[in-house]
Structure formats: structure tokens, C-alpha cells
Amino acid sequence: MLGGGPRTDLTRPASTAIFAAARTPARSPPERPNPTIAALARPFATVLGVSTSVMLVAALLLWARSGFETPPYVFMRGPWPMVAFFATGVTQLASGLVLTIRRPDLPVGPLGLLFAAIVSLGALMNALLAFAEQAASVPLPPAWAAWLPS
């Protein structure tokens, strides 16, 4: 059944029927956004966006200060895992901000921002570990910095 009735014209190709069905507007009622979620979306995006940006910049500075050393993890070889951390953090931050600001009623935007914050925290702790190998003293014990992103 297509378009509410049986398909009687068997001479036209199925692709024509599919395109005709795609042009037919949906008849579902419009959803109303939740005003509580929409009201909290912009402050949530602001707080997570700023904190994630600060963590990414601090991680990049610490990692650069260490001479772009590889953090002491078994699975990290060379600079590419840290570059992947930064790329993931920046792309998730950008997509989470766009989704949260454009569509505050959808939960996927704040979830993207939360994921970006967690990835940025991991990048910051890995950069601190790379810096701890080169520096004489660090503000956070390396054991905590190694445990947190694991």
C-alpha cells in the first residue's frame, strides 16, 4: 500500500512510487519543545563550551611545553594519539555547540558537549603526564593524572 491505497498501476516503476511517497508531507502533529530543557540549554552550552575550550588550550600548552613528547601509555606511540584527542575534542565541541544553540530541545547537543568535555579532560591529563616526564615538579601527582583518563 502506498499513499493510503493499494497500488493499482503496475506499469510504472517502483522508483516513481518511492519518489511520490517522499514528496507526500508527513501527517504527524508538530512536537512542542520542552521549555525547561530549552531554557537550560544555552547556559549549559556556555559553561561546557568555555570549560572544554580552556581544557583543550591548557592541554595543548602543556603538551607543547613538554616538547610534544608521547605520554607514558602502552597504546600511545608518537604524536598521533594526542592529535586525535585534540581533533575529537574540537569537532565534538563545535558540533555540540551548533546543535545545542540551534535546537535546544534535542538532548544530542548537550550530550555532544559532555563528550567533548570528557575527551578534553583526557587530553589535559595525558598532556600533564607528558609534561611530568620533562619537568622537575608538577601541580598534580602523576598517579592521579594517569588514573583519571583511564
3D structure, described in words:
The protein is mostly helical and 150 residues long. The chain has helices at 14-23, 35-65, 80-102, 108-134, 142-147. The protein is built from 5 helices and no strands. The mean pLDDT is 82. The radius of gyration is 24 Å and the shape is elongated. The longest helix has 31 residues, at 35-65.
Tell me the span between the first and last alpha carbons.
53 Å
Morphology call = elongated
Secondary-structure element sequence?
Answer: HHHHH
User: How much beta, percentage-wise?
Assistant: under 5%
Mean pLDDT level: 82
Compact description:
The protein has 150 residues and is mostly helical. It has helices at residues 14-23, 35-65, 80-102, 108-134, 142-147.
In terms of topology, how is this protein built?
Blueprint: H1 14-23, H2 35-65, H3 80-102, H4 108-134, H5 142-147
Helix pairs in contact: 2-3, 2-4, 3-4
Task: List key phrases describing it.
150 residues, mainly alpha, single chain, elongated
